[in-house]
Design goal:
The complex is a heterodimer of chains A (359) and B (595). Chain A is an alpha/beta fold and 359 residues long. Chain A contains 15 helices and 17 strands. Chain A folds into two domains: 241 residues, Alpha-Beta Horseshoe (pyruvate-formate lyase- activating enzyme); 61 residues, no CATH class. Chain B has 595 residues and is α+β, with helices and mostly antiparallel strands. In chain B, 25% of the residues lie in helices and 34% in strands. The chains are: A alpha/beta (359), B alpha+beta (595).
């Protein structure tokens, strides 16, 4: 049974240079057709599971008009949400206003994720975004006034030209906004993005590492619970933890990915196909070994790591009889303590290297 | 004699000058293969050959045309195989000399032409690719007339691509190439000019019967190796297999005799009959000796047996390969393989990877050094790791080659500089015509096995061509240089270098390794040393970051694929001590620029 739902809204008012998510410039005509198709997809594929987390991401969900958001929320009523714990809506700072907040509140959204990314002028120019500290301060205050106390903000770093000093300044400003959650992203130049087209160069590996360590140091009071996520204790994202706990979830909408009945699938990114009802583009049917590999790959992203007992319950296998972990304990890549196996925190930055040794 | 209606001929051409296409046209025109059956370039049957446009294994095809039997004997087009070329030429009475209308004469063409002339072959000069827009027929004609002494009226113009002139060529083959001398009554002598292994029939020999005849069931004897076999099958390729009862003096065909071991039969050897043996073998037999040696190791140690089997299978078809087990501290168990030359090495390595699907590591190629010990004993050393201690050596001599480098004259300066840098000794220079020269140097073989050919090509923008022959040994001031990773000597990376060049070579190797070895979880020092003296050093800094900072729903499958790709990459790495070294590092070490 899947307990989580991701819904993708592929519309934006502005396209950021680094973004490789599925997105289009906002267009009223398409939004209408898209919501109709989304409604049908949910109707076709949702199997009446009891849903405990919903995440509406994009794109920019807040780019929709109030009427469109209302329509979206009515569609979402199809889900059984008696035990809903977390309902996240992604917004852009500039879209936040009283009207939107009232609407979200009415439909039981209880967590906002705001893509600020940086306040540094050069960074913003590079990303082709805008953000103003005073506006952020005011808008977040407004969110608090309307009862939204669980707020994530996104921070992006390792932007070409960025210095440690720039990042430190951003971190200070971000913390002064008192979010409950910060997601950090080191810039990756993905294929088919504007940055890739203009052949942008990534920053030096050394600096990237120092930035990662700087973030860990500056945010040491927060709970660093996943490799790139920090939260005040109790405000860890339940929805995202479902991904990292390798639990099943629905992904609805253009380009959305999901994991249902041992199948990881990815929806088409072609709007025309999607509107025609040809939702799924790729499917990966998982055997037991693949599932366990995913469990390792995702589970070790959490700083607490993998619960040895739960692993056994889930797969009826001892994790250490499936994977030869002894050499990794020996050279301190991994640590086993109190029933958990986790990556040595001082080696988190080379996590992939360690994963490759395991799977 | 002209009533013998047989013509044995081969085609001499530089790579890419259109030999295979011309062969295809001739097959088509003589009706041996219909257009529909025609896979392009039928004679080159191995994938690898087709891909590289070179012919590795020889073939002999019997064609019939206007009552004549034409035997087309194919020759490999590369310098490494010059002995095989000379043997297949020895089976012919004539040859087509094919020259590209745009490129003119090249070094290898010339080398093979001289081989043909040594064998007293009648040469028919052909200018091919006359349909090319940049064809310069008068210039190439001039070359053929002035340099090689052909007569204008003997030169045939053709385009194998369009088919133009191909029938003129066939007429010339019939009218100008002499028929083989037929001596049916003499004791049997047949020349082996090629062999290949067939899993059902064993070793199949391609032969030309010079004297007498060979019949099915005959007991035959190899005159050089002394082995005796009974003929189980004989016939010709048309190119399909056509079995016959006998092959007679003047004829070309194949013989199978349940021969299991290719090393018992040698190209160039003479077959005679046990019942009535000839007294003298056919002239020209030489045992083929490998010139270049390299260690070949499986990347995954548990593939040793598979590698062994693969090498043995390749050896079935290739008597020139020498195989000996070798053990390296760094690379584990593998083999020291002797090759005829670098192309030969390259071909064998690709075949192991491609046909047998084994990832291998090759160590940098070495030549055979003649080492005189202080006690007066002389030993052959084919690997840096077999080099005795310095204190026990009184002299090291290394093999030299004599080059023919044909190049447009504007590149002469740079090519001479290259040869000088490769410790070459200038011998002479001849003008082929007003714009092209033939440069002769003596260069240590060890200097050309790495990157000489690539550099020559790049300096001359691809126009220079190169051929060489071994010309003896000379004493040199050579030393063994070791490479250390993380403080440990990696035996597979040791090289023998000239003392005067050791410092620059050491720097270049260390830099190249720094480039090729990826960052790892700790810092790795790389050092080059002679004895205990470190002459170059670099550090590979520790890996700093390898993590996907962001990973949400949609990224999950992609991330797993990414990890799998990275893992796949690791499979090509060899763990040496605690350092992961990519396979190509062992070979690419010496291709770096010596700055």
């Amino acid at each position: 049974m899947a307990k989580s739902v991701y819904i993708h809204i592929p519309f934006c008012k502005n396209i950021c240079s680094y973004c490789d998510f599925c997105k289009f410039l906002y267009n009223e005509k398409w939004v209408g057709a898209y919501l109709t198709a989304l409604k049908r997809e949910i109707k076709d594929r949702y199997m009446d599971d009891d849903i405990s987390t919903i995440y509406i991401g994009g794109g920019t969900p807040s780019a929709l008009s109030c009427d469109e958001i209302k329509r979206l929320m009515e569609i979402i009523k199809a889900f059984k949400t008696d035990n809903l714990k977390e309902f996240t809506f992604e917004c852009n700072l500039s879209d936040i206003n009283k009207e939107l907040l009232v609407l979200l509140k009415y439909y039981k959204v209880n967590r906002l994720s705001i893509g600020i990314e940086s306040f540094n002028k050069k960074n913003l120019e590079f990303m082709e975004r805008s953000a103003d500290y005073k506006e952020a301060k005011d808008k977040i205050k407004l969110c608090h006034e309307y009862g939204f106390n669980n707020i994530n903000i996104d921070l992006m770093y390792a932007i070409p030209g960025e210095t440690l000093k720039d990042l430190k300044k951003d971190l200070d400003l971000f913390m002064s906004l008192n979010p409950t959650h910060i997601s950090t992203y080191s810039l990756i130049i993905e294929e088919h993005t504007k940055l890739d087209n203009i052949k942008a160069q990534v920053i030096a590996e050394e600096l990237d590492y120092e930035m990662f360590e700087l973030i860990r140091k500056r945010l040491k009071d927060a709970h660093h619970y996943e490799i790139s996520n920090f939260a005040i204790k109790g405000y860890e994202s339940i929805h995202n933890l479902a991904y990292w706990n390798n639990e099943e979830y629905y992904g609805f909408g253009l380009g959305a990915a999901g994991y249902i009945d041992d199948i990881r699938y990815e929806n088409t990114k072609n709007l025309k196909e999607y509107l025609l009802g040809n939702y799924v583009k790729n499917k990966e049917i998982l055997g037991k070994k693949e599932k366990m590999d995913y469990e390792i790959m995702l589970g070790l992203r959490k700083l607490e790591g993998i619960n040895i007992k739960k692993f056994k319950e889930k797969y009826d296998e001892d994790i250490e009889s499936v994977y030869n972990l002894e050499p990794l304990f020996k050279n301190k890549d991994l640590i086993k303590k109190k029933g958990f196996i986790y990556i040595n925190p001082s080696k988190l930055y080379v996590m992939n290297e360690i994963l490759i040794k395991i799977i | 004699m002209q009533d013998v209606k047989i013509r044995n001929f081969s085609i001499i051409a530089h790579i890419d000058h259109g030999k295979s296409t011309l062969a295809d046209r001739i097959l088509e025109l003589t009706g041996a293969v219909s257009k529909r059956e025609m896979k392009d370039q039928l004679l080159d049957s191995m994938d690898l050959e087709r891909e590289r446009g070179i012919t590795i294994k020889l073939n002999a095809v019997r064609l019939t045309y206007k009552g004549y039997t034409l035997n087309l004997i194919d020759t490999p087009g590369h310098v490494d195989f010059s002995y095989e070329v000379s043997r297949s030429l020895a089976a012919c009475e004539g040859a087509l000399l094919v020259v590209d209308a745009a490129q003119g004469i090249e070094a290898q063409t010339l080398a093979n032409l001289y081989l043909a002339m040594d064998n007293d072959l009648t040469i028919i000069p052909v200018i091919n690719k006359i349909d090319l827009p940049n064809a310069d027929i008068p210039k190439v004609k001039q070359e053929l007339i002035e340099v090689l002494g052909f007569r204008d009226e003997d030169i045939i113009l053709c385009s194998a691509k369009t088919g133009d002139g191909v029938s003129d060529i066939i007429e010339a083959i019939i009218n100008k190439i002499p028929a083989p001398v037929v001596n049916s009554d003499l004791p049997t002598r047949a020349l082996i000019f090629d062999s290949f292994f067939d899993s059902y029939r064993g070793v199949v020999l391609l032969v030309k019967v010079v004297d007498g005849k060979i019949k099915l069931g005959d007991k035959i004897k190899m005159m050089a190796t002394g082995s005796v076999y009974e003929v189980t099958e004989l016939g010709v390729h048309t190119p399909r297999i056509e079995k016959l009862d006998e092959l007679e003096s003047g004829e070309v065909g194949f013989i199978a005799a349940s021969i299991k071991d290719i090393s018992r039969v040698a190209v160039g050897d003479t077959i005679t009959l046990v019942s009535n043996p000839a007294s003298m073998p056919i002239k020209g037999y030489k045992k083929m000796l490998p010139m270049v040696f390299s260690g070949i190791f499986p990347v995954e140690p548990n593939k040793y047996d598979e590698l062994k089997e693969a090498l043995n299978k390749l050896k079935l078809n290739d008597a020139s390969l020498s195989i000996e087990p070798e053990n390296s501290v760094a690379l584990g168990f593998g083999f020291r393989i002797g090759f005829l030359g670098l192309l030969h090495m390259d071909v064998i390595m690709s075949r192991i990877e491609r046909e047998f699907n084994i990832n291998i590591i090759a160590t940098s190629p070495s030549v055979i050094y003649h080492v005189t010990l202080t006690n007066g004993e002389i030993i052959d050393v084919d690997s840096p790791n077999k080099m005795p201690d310095k204190s026990k050596i009184s002299d090291i001599a290394e093999p030299y080659i004599y080059t023919s480098i044909i190049t447009p004259s504007e590149y002469v300066g740079q090519i001479m500089e290259l040869c000088q840098n490769k410790r070459g000794i200038y011998k002479s220079m001849e003008y082929i015509d007003r714009t092209r020269v033939n440069l002769h140097y003596e260069i240590p073989l060890s200097e050309i096995v790495y990157d000489f050919y690539d550099k020559l090509k790049s300096i001359s923008k691809g126009y220079a061509s190169f051929d060489y022959e071994l010309c003896g040994y000379k004493s040199s001031n050579l030393v063994k240089m070791d490479i250390l990773l993380n403080g440990e000597v990696v035996d597979a990376l040791s090289v023998i270098v000239h003392a005067d060049f050791a410092y620059t070579k050491g720097r270049s190797i260390v830099n190249k390794l720094k480039e090729l070895i990826p960052r790892q979880m700790f810092q790795i020092p790389i050092q080059a040393s002679i004895g205990s003296k470190v002459i170059a050093r670099e550090n590979i800094s520790a890996m700093r970051k390898n993590v996907l900072a962001k990973c949400y729903g949609g990224d999950v499958s992609r991330k797993r694929k990414l990890l799998e790709k990275q893992k796949e990459g690791k499979k090509r790495m060899k763990v040496v001590g605690s350092v992961e070294v990519p396979g190509e590092a062992f070979l690419a070490v010496l291709s770096g620029d010596e700055k």
